[in-house]
Amino acid sequence: MKTVSIVAPVYNEEPVLTAFYQSLSAVLSPLPYQTEIIFVNDGSSDGSEERLNRIAESDRRVRALHLSRNFGHQAALCAGLDAASGDYVVTLDSDGQHPPRLIPEMIALAESGYDVVQTQRLADPTLGYFKRKTSELFYRALNRLADTPSVPGGADFRLLSRRALDALRSLPEFHRYLRGMVSWIGFRSVILPFTPEKRIAGASKYSFRKMLRLGSDAIFSFSLVPLYIGLSAGGLFLILAIVEVVYVLSIWLSGNTDSLAPGWSSLMFMLLIVAAILMFILGFIGVYIGYIFQEVKHRPVYIVRETFAKDNASASTSGKEPTP
After folding, report:
1. Distance in angstroms (rounded) separating the CA atoms of residues 227 and 219
2. Is 116 exposed, middle or buried (0-12, 13-18, 19+ CB in 10 A)?
3. Which class for 276: exposed (0-12), middle (13-18), buried (19 or more C-beta within 10 A)?
4. Which of 98-112, 268-282, 302-316 has the lowest mean pLDDT?
5. Is the pTM of this model over 0.85?
6. Which of 14, 94, 101, 289 could anchor a disulfide with 47, C-beta 3.0 to 4.6 Å?
7. pLDDT above 70 (res 302)
């Protein structure tokens, strides 16, 4: 009998955990598969840890991984993926917006030969205008800049086969953008559209700062286009400089040197533009160097402080490297 692993990151979701677990269990129980549920507590500061431990104590299928601090959504997903042992692994958020009822359909698609079942979030009218527009612009910009395409409206609600998961786990980078990484490994995939459910309770934990960080990881991890933009701007100004030289030489050769009146405003304009481009280029280079610096330190993507399960409720401390 095949095994299906469910991975759900948790960050300050105490009010929703019981309801989410019950809805998930109701979907998994009728399935003709062995199942395991892995909750990853990403350094929650509310009562999520105690609630997860009680759920794990009541259900042998459940394991609760408690990270030593808040490492971020992508790192929490990686912790759960590294711990999953199933033939199929499904990742979804624990706030209820990713409907567990789609899991049987995802498994059916995997059984038909797909290694990756990627969900695509349809337009959600409950989202604010700013949220919808920034998401749309993000995917449009990312697909223009990055070599690896991303599905617009793609979510971290997906199914991976064991061989796709092993390929994903072999990627060693520290900065994780799983949507791009899953696309990069190139296994046979299918898109499953869905309409997000209403959150069971609470509010989204994805702040504007976290979205900017995710966007930065996506662009700078999968594209060198920012550097090429700087090179293109440099080439453009080189052409303009050559045109200026030709223009000045033509005036000198024609003897109309009186028309060469120095222009302070135009000079300052050019200096400011050139200085701005240089600062942009230096900034892009600095970001890439910063990413390289963080990669070469080989720090783990996350650290597990404790693993709680019904058969093994003792604490254990372990650091998990980004590669198996």
Report:
1. 12
2. buried
3. exposed
4. 268-282
5. no
6. 14
7. yes
